[in-house]
Design goal:
CATH superfamily of the largest domain: Mur-like, catalytic domain
Number of domains: 3
Strand content: 15-25%
Radius of gyration: 22 Å
CATH architecture of the largest domain: 3-Layer(aba) Sandwich
Distance between the termini: 58 Å
CATH topology of the largest domain: UDP-N-acetylmuramoyl-L-alanine:D-glutamate ligase
């Protein structure tokens, strides 16, 4: 990358509609760069976000999109060798970087980096941490793999010293196979969880732990590591830390504890305690015990960098959540429809538990799309069956692009349905091939006071919105 790349320079993105690439594109446009981008997977919310800020999306991938040659190309991690646009970049000698490398150059350099990492909880925790620092008038920068409602986008370039980064363990690019978070220069790390995931790039749990071990080793002696003490595999890494370590959790063994957890009205309250000393009640507009842990991690980190309990408490009370994280899509005919990003069995189980706690006594539908690289594989067949069996009705569609998963590794939705039904001893689960059929059945069979929870890490054919529209039509 040219060291004198300054505002006004042309930066082109290959696969611009990814959550990360789209957010960085928006940040660079905000800072005065000329931004272009291409993609073949174009859907909301990123497509509408880019349109709103004036970035046109060139359809598909083609050398023609490069024109006379941008000053720099950012290559998304969904791009592989053989992509005609990427191959043209290599052939023509146009400077290129991975998304994490670009973030290091344009956002992190010269700032104090606070990285939120873990298999689950990253996006919500990073969003809440960023909101607390903004509310405390510290003018932070941040980069988040989602869209916090308080901000309307997942990025911010502030003049303050802190930058908050969602630390993804996925690989960076076809030419940069290390985890993204290794580019983020952490001074502090929040480690929320550690389980096996990303079966397309990690062999097993030990391989995943190796990536996180490298992150822990990067934190300098003057920094800090905060780790969830309920994440057993994360605790295995602490002997590699050269910085001060604190733990957080809902149990008695953690340095930071959330006590007296209470829920109601779509909010969760708890009393944060440090080494047994209570600091006064906190309330956050999130549901579920897993979000109590996320909020506690933010509270503890904010205290450790010097914020007062009153400032943190006030900020948390005004947090408005994250798009597609237990987001209410609408309510019609007495049926509440919720859109969520869960795609790992633990996240699915936590989300179902949170929705049950928030709307007790109501029949719960779980409509789950196996879409991620891991969920489309058989590796978590039993775990998904146990998680989804916690709902009252379960609906599963076809796999997303099943041809991209080797047949011997591929999850069978029909087999998962059978596993769920055997686990429950009842036929609560069904397989429906497409979005239109799911809409037809849910709109027909959902009763007043039901809750329909839709879970997917992709667009799922705008299923939540279509269910709401169908229910409204039924209602009228």
């Amino acid at each position: 990358m040219s060291p004198d790349l300054s505002p006004g320079a042309h930066v082109h993105f290959i696969a611009i509609c990814g959550v990360g690439t789209g957010s960085l594109a928006g940040l660079l446009r905000q800072r005065g760069y000329r931004v272009t981008g291409s993609d073949e997977n174009v859907y909301p919310p990123m497509s509408t976000f880019l349109e709103r800020i004036g970035i046109d999306i060139l359809p598909g991938f083609s050398e023609a999109h490069l024109g006379n040659g941008p000053d720099l190309v950012v290559v998304g991690n969904a791009v592989s060798r053989g992509n005609p646009e990427a191959e043209a970049v290599l052939r023509r000698g146009i400077p290129y970087v991975s998304l994490p490398q670009a973030l290091g150059r344009f956002l992190i350099d010269g700032k104090r980096s606070l990285v939120v990492a873990g298999t689950h909880g990253k996006t919500t925790t990073t969003s809440l941490m960023s909101w607390v620092l903004v509310a405390a008038e510290l003018d932070p920068s941040f980069f988040i793999g989602g869209i916090p409602v308080n901000f309307g986008n997942g990025f911010r370039f502030g003049e303050g010293s802190w930058v908050v980064m969602e630390g993804d363990e996925y690989d960076s690019a076809f030419f940069d196979k290390g985890p993204k978070f290794l580019h983020y220069q952490p001074e502090r790390v929040i480690l929320t969880s550690l389980e096996f995931d990303h079966a397309d790039i990690y062999r097993d749990l030990e391989h995943v732990k190796g990536a996180f071990r490298r992150l822990v080793e990067m934190v300098p002696p003057g920094g800090g590591l905060l780790v969830c003490d309920e994440a057993a595999h994360a605790l295995d890494l602490l002997d590699r830390a050269s910085c001060p370590v604190q733990s957080y959790g809902l149990g008695e063994s953690a340095n930071w504890q959330a006590r007296d957890i209470r829920a109601g009205g779509g909010r969760t309250g708890f009393t944060p305690c440090h080494e047994g000393v209570a600091e006064g009640p906190v309330e956050v507009p999130l549901i579920g015990r897993h979000n109590a842990r996320n909020a506690l991690a933010v509270y503890a980190t904010a205290r450790e960098i010097g914020l007062s309990p009153s400032v943190i408490r006030s900020a948390m009370a005004t947090f408005r959540g994250v798009r597609r994280r237990q987001e209410i899509a609408g309510e019609a005919a007495g049926v509440l429809v919720i859109d969520d990003f869960a795609h790992h069995p633990t996240a699915v189980a936590d989300t179902i538990a949170a929705v049950r706690d928030a709307w007790p006594g109501r029949r719960l539908w779980a409509v789950f799309e196996p879409r991620s690289q891991t969920s489309r594989r058989r590796v978590f067949l039993t775990e998904f069956a146990r998680a989804l069996a916690r709902a009252d009705r379960v609906v599963l569609p076809d796999l997303y692009h099943p041809e991209k998963i080797p047949e011997e590794e591929r999850l069978s939705p029909a087999e998962l349905v059978d596993c769920i039904n055997r686990h429950r001893g009842d036929r609560i689960a069904s397989y429906l091939a497409g979005v239109d059929e799911i809409v037809r059945v849910v709109v027909r069979d959902a009763a007043a006071r039901d809750v329909v929870l839709v879970m997917s890490n992709g667009s799922f054919g705008d299923l939540p919105e279509k269910i709401v529209a169908g229910l409204r039509q039924r209602e009228s």
